[in-house]
Amino acid sequence: MVLERIAGSEPRLEENSQPEIDVKTTPIQVKYPPVYAVDIYRSLSMLLQSDVGARDKIEGPALEALKEFLDMLYEVLPASQEYKAHLSEISVWLNSKTSITGQEWVAYLEGIQFPTYKGPFIACNGSKPHFRGYPCGLWTLFHALTVEQYLLSSSGPDHQVDSVAHALNRFVPQFFSCSYCAFHFALNTANVVRPGESILPENRVTPNPHELVLNESVIPTLPKAPETPKDTVLWLNILHNRVNKHLAGQPSEDPTAPKIQFPPSYLCPACWSQSSTGELELGKTPETEESLFQFLVERYRASSWKYVDLPTVFITNAVELKTEQPVPDLLIISIISVVLTILAAVILLAGLRFLCRRRRLFRRRRGQYTSGQSV
């Protein structure tokens, strides 16, 4: 991340005007890199291997949450057929169980050689080892899942409206290794819970009982539960910004990547409008909400990802041609060989044609010479 510190304050807008952002008046500008697939699969690998594997016993609501999360990944995650085949195999095995241990889970993944990515983060790499990284990659994964659900529902049969939102609401509180984060996520997605389900995980110890308690009066203030796949894309961004606001200024904040409302006004001016008090607001009008939605779809769709350093076992067929993997030497050699073979064939044909023409010319001249002698 690169920071540019510029003196000034957030610009105000004229009535009914679009935000016109002058970089000279923007306090801090973070140059956001694009989404890197390695960040997504690195965090997903850590989530499935480490966080799920750390549980002593997985049963009841936790087991059901794990099953639902895997089913959602199989349906929505942009991945190769090989990777999805592994997800399907895990689901079949898991559906035959009523209880497993974390050790059994890890052993099974290792037994089927489930693909994991252990390389470094790129866009999510923090300025220090304890900054960003895993949580950043998880949020990126979650955004990508909501966008992919929308794209799938737009191009084919409708998917269950809350399949991604509900799967995250069930899974994250049960398994995310940061227990404070897990409970905070559960409280901020409380209105996604279905009838009969517990809002807070019942089999985890509350890290801060005085803060992380359910307050029914807070539920109406939560981001509205999504009713369409498009709503889910916007819902998660509101939720993410809500968490950013809560964590801003905390020791966990990377100074090179401040916890701000995303996308900032200088990155998406059309996403912001002016409130009645003259402050900029994100996605609060129909026009700015639509701009925000289009921005999120374009940023997090798989065709916009960068595939540097990602092994091909993870890459979905739909985006393989957009990878930035170096072309293998063997392929280059094969292409050169084909080109040289074609070139040699062309030269050979040209040479044969030349010889044939010379031979016909020689015969013609010889015939003329013979006729002259007979006269």
UniProtKB/TrEMBL annotation:
Its EC number is 1.8.3.2. SUPFAM superfamilies: FAD-dependent thiol oxidase (SSF69000). PROSITE patterns: ERV_ALR (PS51324). Keywords: Disulfide bond, FAD, Flavoprotein, Membrane, Oxidoreductase, Signal, Transmembrane, Transmembrane helix. Residues 127-261 form the ERV/ALR sulfhydryl oxidase domain. GO terms for biological process: protein folding. One of its GO terms (molecular function) is flavin-dependent sulfhydryl oxidase activity. The chain crosses the membrane at residues 330-356. One of its GO terms (cellular component) is Golgi membrane. Its cofactor is FAD. It is an enzyme of class 1 (oxidoreductase). Signal peptide: none annotated. The keyword Transmembrane applies. It catalyses: 2 R'C(R)SH + O2 = R'C(R)S-S(R)CR' + H2O2. This is Sulfhydryl oxidase.
